[in-house]
Amino acid sequence: MPRPPKPRRVGFYPTITYFNPAGVPAAEAGEIIIGVDEWEAIRLKDYLGIDQQESAEYMNLAQSTFQRILASARTKLATAIVEGKAIRIEAGNYQIVGHWFCRKCGHQWETVLEAERRMHQLCPSCGTEQTNQHLGHGWGPPQWAGPGRRRRGGR
Question: Sorting pLDDT into bands at 50, 70 and 90, what band is 37?
Fold first, then answer.
């Protein structure tokens, strides 16, 4: 009997989950479903430009599994664009990870949002309740992405 798959870590749930080609009624377009884990793979690798090994580690996956998820997502996106189909983002085996920041000592940490729904947490470093949770589009490249991951002007 195969073991159950591990849930994939995603930074946040997308706010826009449906895309329809312009000028095509939704009923006629047909649709392609992309899992939230596939969306996160596209976001990390193609949108944020993080290398594949680091993206796989962030999502708690083997690099080969990350590559399969990424290839599946890219194929679905290409099919939707070429055939003029709508794209729906939903489903998949994932867990949303919340990013926390301590206003007192600057410590940063993560928790799984399904398990922790409080607005504030105690800082594991200094014990204060002066913490903020970062959600949604406020999170750019993760801290481990480093400053050298962006394209630089000049030369």
Answer: very high
Same domain for 81 and 59: yes
- DSSP assignment of 65-81 equals HHHHHHHHHHHHHHHHH
Determine the longest span between alpha carbons in the chain, in angstroms: 57
Answer yes or no: do 18 and 85 share one domain. yes
The Cα–Cα gap between 97 and 9 comes to 6
CB under 8 A, 24+ apart: contacts of 79-83: 79/32, 80/19, 80/32, 83/30
As a whole number of angstroms, the distance between CA 132 and CA 134 comes to 6
> Could you give the 3-state DSSP secondary structure of residue 64?
helix
Residues 100 and 76 in one domain: no
Q: Per mean pLDDT, which range of 2-6, 131-135, 141-145 is the poorest? A: 141-145
As a whole number of angstroms, the distance between CA 111 and CA 100 comes to 8
